[in-house]
């Protein structure tokens, strides 16, 4: 297939690109705006591979999107481009509305016009896979069953509201126009190449440097964690074998509280790079909770596992170990991000305790 993938220089998108190039014969047209959180380095060998084409473009640019479809004639779309940082959405929601809502609308319209002109066979085979989040479902309390594909939407932040809106648009384009769309919702991802504003890399790097480890509230907020390469594997299965109009909940059955995650990182670093000043748990600092902080997210992936004969290979301990080893081995990359494009923004402050 020729896959048009948006956001392919982002954390999850680059994992998908790497897997497509390494383990399939598909070609990838990678459309990315190359914002602050994008990294061409994360493409690794795909960056110069003859089956990968990188196009710097904004998904809100209708002319550019139509031209890309016309020029590259994709067989499927994997739409991952999104603003995704909750704290940033609280500080400035406008860009989230533009990228996540308007951008998805523009891409849907470009895809619909292109799809309408395909031959019957190519039209039937075409897919538009929209990649979303479990945050659209709101929050779970103690004892609540995990989210499933049929959980009612109840977004709580500007970020999750913008993703919920884009999910609804994708489903509306399927039901109204017949566009063969797929939606997947997943939980917190972690792994190599994740931008340092997210919880696991942030805590890892701060702990390495002896900086405080800010944790919102009492650290009891819970998230379900999936290793990014496992998520990428599932996404490729969905775009390849998914049924149009269906939703797929992707999870790894690995819930942890934020405090458990932070302590696990401290223990893993202490075992690998002991700190002469003592165990790194001493650096944990509880800070004022952020506005509207959802208590718990957890996904029941049973239906997706059955439909795709797929299950996430990594448990949290093995995935975390691989992640920390990667950051220890790639110091020049994250030091460059911190010193250059990111210039330390948020990394030393209270708002660093983000997921």
Attribute tags:
single chain, 355 residues, alpha/beta, Rossmann fold, 7-stranded parallel β-sheet, 3-stranded mixed β-sheet, 42% helix, globular, disordered C terminus
| SSE string | EHEEHEHHHEHEEHEEHEEHEHHH
Radius of gyration: 20 Å
User: Mean of the pLDDT scores?
Assistant: 93
What is the level-2 CATH architecture name of the domain at 2-191 and 227-254 and 292-313?
3-Layer(aba) Sandwich
Number of DSSP helical runs:
12
CATH T-level fold name of the domain at 2-191 and 227-254 and 292-313: Rossmann fold
Number of strands: 12
N-to-C span: 34 Å
For the sheet with most strands, the description reads:
7 strands, parallel
Q: Uncertain spans, ≥5 residues at pLDDT below 50?
A: 343-355
Task: State the CATH class of the domain at 2-191 and 227-254 and 292-313.
Answer: Alpha Beta
Strand order of the largest sheet: 3-2-1-4-5-6-10
Strand fraction:
15-25%
CATH superfamily of the domain at 2-191 and 227-254 and 292-313, called what? NAD(P)-binding Rossmann-like Domain
Tell me the helix content: 40-55%
The outline comes out as globular
Quaternary state, please? Answer: single chain
Return the structural class: alpha/beta
Overview of this structure, please?
The chain is an alpha/beta fold and 355 residues long. The chain has a domain at 2-191 and 227-254 and 292-313: NAD(P)-binding Rossmann-like Domain (Rossmann fold, 3-Layer(aba) Sandwich), CATH 3.40.50. The chain is 42% helix and 16% strand. It is built from twelve helices and twelve strands. The protein has helices at residues 11-23, 62-72, 86-91, 94-116, 120-125, 158-177, 199-208, 228-241, 258-272, 302-308, 316-329, 331-339; strands at residues 2-6, 27-32, 52-56, 76-79, 127-133, 181-186, 188-190, 213-216, 222-227, 247-250, 255-257, 284-287. The strands form three sheets. It has a seven-stranded parallel β-sheet, sandwiched between helices. A three-stranded mixed β-sheet has the order 7-9-11. Helix 6 (158-177) links the parallel strand 5 and strand 6 (181-186). Helix 4 (94-116) packs parallel to helix 6 (158-177). The longest helix is centred in the first third of the chain and has 23 residues, at 94-116.
